[in-house]
Each structure stands twice: as C-alpha cells, then as structure tokens.
Amino acid sequence: MPSHPIAPKHAHIIAQHGQTRVDNYFWLRERDNPQTMEYLHAEDDYQQEMTGHTLPLQATLFDEMKARIKEDDTSAPEKVDDFFYYTRTEQGKQYPLFCRKSGSLDAPEEILLDQNALAEGRSFCRVGAFQVSSDHSKLAYSVDEDGSEKCVLYIKDLTQNRLLAEKIPNTSGDVYDHAGVAWANDNQTLFYVTLDPSLRPDKLYRHHLGQNPANDQLLYHEADEQFFLFVSKSRSQAYIMAFSYAYASGEWRTLPADQPQADFTLFQPRQRGMEYYIEHHGEQFFVRTNLDARNFRLMKTPVHATNLSHWQEVVPHRADTLLEDMQAFENHLVLYERRNGLRQIRISAANGVSNTRNIQFPEPVYTYYQAANDEFKTDTLRFHYTSLVTPKSAIDYNMGTDTWNVVKQDEIPSGYDPTLFTCERQFATAEDGTRVPISLLYRREVQRNGQNPTLLYGYGSYGFSQEPAFNANRLSLVERGFVFAIAHIRGGSEMGRAWYEDGKMLNKRNTFTDFIACAEHLIAEGYTCTPKLAIMGRSAGGLLVGAAMTLRPDLFGVVVAAVPFVDVVNTMSDPTIPLTTMEYDQWGNPDDREYFDYMMSYSPYDNLRATTYPDILISTGLNDPRVAYWEPAKFTAKLRELSTSDKLIILKTNFEAGHAGASGRYDYLKEVAFEYAFLIDRLA
C-alpha cells in the first residue's frame, strides 16, 4: 500500500476557560501558505491512487445513474398570469434552460436564461436569484461562479432579449430557492441584499433601472451579527418584505409594492425566543408564530395594525401537530403541517377556519415538497409528491373540487419497477427510552440474515427533517442488495418542535446517541452487522457521523463524511467565520464555559484518540463558505496521526466548488458514483 500523506505539525496553543489545547494542524487555515495547498494536493493524489482500482466501477455506476435520467426533459410548467414558466434540459448539457410560453403551452418557446451559456469557460456555475418583474418584461438573476455563494446580479430586458448595463457584485443569492431580490410593481425598481466580509447578508438596497449601482440607496443595515437579512415579495404582490432572521427570533419590515419610494415599516419588533412569519391576504396579514406555542399557531392582524397587541388567534397551538409553513390564495389558505413524523397539507377557506380538510396521500410513508405557487388568484395548489419507492410527481390539486391531478412524474428511462422494493418504518429505542423513527428501503428478496451491506444516512440539525423521498441514484446501491436507512433523529423536526429542541444546544448529544441507537437497532434486527454497516452525513450530518464514530468507532464498517462540520469548538470560537455568530442559537457560544465544556464533549476533532477507526471517506470544497475546507483537512490529518488500524482514510477535495459540490448535473453524478464505489468496495 502506498504511504499516505503526513501533514507537518506546527503547534498552535489555544487557551480557553483555563484550559490549554495544542492544535498541531491549525495552520491548515492558511490558504495562502504553500504547505496548505501542497498538503491538500498530496491528499488528493493519494485518494486517486487508493481508489484507482474502482474507476471501472465508478464508470459503471455513472452510466447507471445517467441512464435513469431523462436527459431531454421539461419540468411541469407553472402558470403565472398569462405565462407558463418551466425549465428544461438537453442531452449532454450540464445545466437547465429557464423558459416560458405566453398564452398557452402550444405557443412558441422563449428562452429566458441558458445556464449552459453562463457556464462556458467555468468549472462551476450556480444561478442564485431568479425573479421576473410583475409585468413579465424583465428578469433579475444572479450567478455564483465559484461556490463561494457570493453572487453577481444581472438584469435582462426580456422584451428586447438583452442584458442591461447594471452589474451588481457581492449580492446574496439563496442557495436553495432562487430568492434574494424583489421587484416593485412599477417594474423599474429592484430591491436586493449584499454580503458583509463574513458573507452574512446584511444590507438592503433599492435600485432603479438605468441608475449606477454605486448610487443605490441603502435602506436598512442589519447590524446584529446573529441575524441574516432577506428580501422577498408577498405572494399577493402587494408588499416588499425584508426579513431579519435568527434561529431564535425574527423581525419583518414591509413596504407597499405600489410605492417603491416609500419607507419600510416595522411589522413587530424582535423579541428573544419569539419567531414569527407573515403572509399577506387582503386587509390582513396571517402570522405563524411560536409565541406561547411550541409547535406554532396561526394568528391574524390588520395590515395597518401589525403590532403583537393586535394579533388574534386563528388556529390554536396543537401538541401533536407542527405548523411548518403557510400559503395564502385569494379564496384559500393552505397550511403545511407535520404530524406523527409525516407531512400534512391542511386546506381551508381564506379565513383559515371554514371548510377545513386535509389532503389524503396514497402511501403510508411519503413526503411532499412545496412549490412556489406564484399565482395568487387560483384554485390550483402545486406541490411535489414522492416516497422512497415513488418518483417525484408534480401534483396540481384543485382546492375547489378537492381533486388530485398528476401533471408529471419523473421518468426512469432505463426502467424501474417499484413493486420490487420494500419501504417500511421501524423504531429504535434511544438511551433515554425515546422511540426514534427509521425509514428503510430494500429489495423484497433481502433477508434479515445480518449480512446485508447497509447505508444509514442522517442529519439531525437546525430542525431540518430528512424526508423519505425517492432518489434514483440510490437504486445503484439497493439493486446491489444494500439496505438504505434514514435515521430521523432528534435535532430535526420529524416529530415536532420538541424533537428539534431536544437535539440542539445542551441537548445536542441526543442527536448522536439517537443515531447510534438506530445503528444498533439495524444490527439487532438482522438487517446488517458492523463490518457491513456504513454511515453517511453531509455538513451538520458530517458532524453527526464524525461524532458517532468518535463515540463508537467499533460500531461502523465505513464512514462517509461530506463537507463535515467537525472542528466545532474552534469554529464556534471564531466570529469572523461565516455563519458562526448566527449559529450560537444552535450550538451555543463557547465564550460561555458551560457551552464550551459541552461542545468539547462531542466535537469530533477534539475527541479523536488513538484507537481503531473504520474506513473513512472525507470530502470538502475549497471555496466552501459554510464549512471551511480546513475542518475536513484537519480532521483527516489528525485521524492519520491517531488511527491504530490499517483502514483507509482518504480526503477528496473539489478545488473548484463550495459547500454543495459540483454544480453540473453530470459532474454531480460523478461525485455520487465516487462515493458509492467507495462504499461498495469497502463493504465487499
């Protein structure tokens, strides 16, 4: 076996709360240090050498996954006014085209944006903001060119198919839902948010078309470093809304979209521990809040009297139901809820109390994803339904007749028979007696003989729930006899708000022990055994698998930690790192001795010791602003120093991407194929 890289040791002394720690790999934070790049490239050379024998398997897996994609495909169009908006992909091209048709689906296609053209000459390209003006004549979009999540904002005149002169750098383009800008109703005024040096969105500007962006007016600066600032437009099109968001509180400001020169009005001052979210409807706002309601309740308040003292209850708090989100339509109110670990959709009249009913879903274990539903005056609710065995389906639900129409279901061109697979839910018992759900997928002929290769996946942070959704790539494992399992551990919100709160701050260790309990359950029930059990997590899920491994290195055969948050104490002690100050409400502030001691008890980097560790694949992105590359790099270096086994430890660095990995759809499949090949090879 080739010798692995050994990172030089440069002692760095850290003194906190009367304790002194020696961090030999702190220097890897120095991106401009030639030794840092030398080490990262040496690790990458090593991983290529040690995984070279899996290249044929990687190619096979890639071909399998690619064959499950309908390469020439079109999304289900979404109607907004007289236009139908959709994206489509073309065979051999990495990125989508953003398109629309006017009047009917038989009309000629108009390509608004070709992301493939944007990506020419670049190894990374992500579209951040994507917002069309109210009259559908202009498009504001932003581009992240390197994975750093710093976006350049552009404006396109759709009537003349040309870019305007404005080019606004350093803007916030949301990673997940193309938010980040908002058009006023004059179709000439645009609101956007910029980033501070730590990449925190903090300043709201107003821009008039044709104006030099250097002269744009600063409307609001969010000075509190624990808050992120966002801007959006109400679905009613009546208001521009600025949202200051922290994990334990929030604050909204509104401006009439018909009066773009007006000042923003404070909706309700922030209060520590009180969260609230607003949705406009007619002469009132609906307010979703956790005020005296752990699982949230629904309130309403007049548009001209939005202070808390005017709020009136519409839907009370329910101990068994988490109110997750809402969308108001002209004649309907839709509440997105969660009960017994499963997502629900509650529909009512616009007042929120009349003609209430829940959509009935066809499978016992399933999930859905909300759509934008940009059209306000409609009876049609769009959402995306899926389960572990059912490909994602775009559903148009008629709220007037309560009928369900499958507009489009993702196709599997290479063939797929859902009857060949079993989907079930099990419960593990945690240390404190809590029952922890596990979602399972495997081929029907799989036997509980304790010898099945198994992948246990988890996240368990920020209240983010891991949904039992279909993933065509996953079939490459399951069809090879793998059992795939999702651990719905505390720290998510699967079982309500308490599930989240019992897995953060000074309860964070519950997340890790829940995960261990799920692993032990799978072994005890005969699904697998330690040598055949792999665990995988990404970002905070990387923390999860890192902490589980340091607690129980004897329990797992393989660990895959993608962009893992593993250097918890050092990161949370450095407020210059993006996200740190905002994260105090998730992990605690290590300036407080109680939180420092608690973090030290589970931080994977600080709890590595000389022992036998399983095979480990660690990945990172050099431009990652969320979990800096040095965390996975330091973790790898220290593992090499302390591991007493000959198990494989490799670090794979994407030198041209950030937290989300490759941006192109084929490049992404290659990353998945690499991870799956590692799993198959090490569990064989």
Describe how the helices and strands are arranged.
Blueprint: E1 12-16, E2 19-23, H1 34-51, H2 55-67, E3 73-74, E4 78-80, E5 83-89, E6 97-102, E7 110-114, H3 115-118, E8 126-132, E9 138-144, E10 150-157, E11 162-172, E12 181-183, E13 189-195, E14 201-208, E15 217-221, E16 228-233, E17 239-246, E18 249-256, E19 265-266, E20 276-281, E21 284-289, E22 297-302, E23 312-315, E24 322-328, E25 332-339, E26 342-349, E27 357-358, E28 367-370, E29 380-386, E30 393-398, E31 403-409, E32 421-429, E33 435-443, E34 454-457, H4 475-478, E35 483-487, H5 497-501, H6 509-524, E36 533-538, H7 540-551, E37 558-562, H8 568-572, H9 584-587, H10 593-602, H11 604-607, E38 615-621, H12 630-642, E39 649-654, H13 665-683
Parallel strand pairs: 34-35, 34-36, 36-37, 37-38, 38-39
Antiparallel strand pairs: 1-2, 3-5, 4-5, 5-6, 6-7, 8-9, 9-10, 10-11, 12-13, 13-14, 14-15, 16-17, 17-18, 18-19, 20-21, 21-22, 22-23, 24-25, 25-26, 26-27, 28-29, 29-30, 30-31, 32-33, 33-35
Helix pairs in contact: 2-13, 6-7
Structural class: alpha+beta
Shape: globular
Q: In what order do the strands lie side by side in the largest sheet?
A: 32-33-35-34-36-37-38-39
Reported by name, the CATH topology of the largest domain is Rossmann fold
Total number of β-strand segments? 39
In short:
The chain is of the alpha+beta class. The chain folds into 4 domains: 37-66 and 419-683, Rossmann fold; 71-82 and 89-121, no CATH class; 125-274, Prolyl oligopeptidase, N-terminal domain (Methylamine Dehydrogenase, Chain H, 7 Propeller); 275-411, 7 Propeller (Methylamine Dehydrogenase, Chain H).
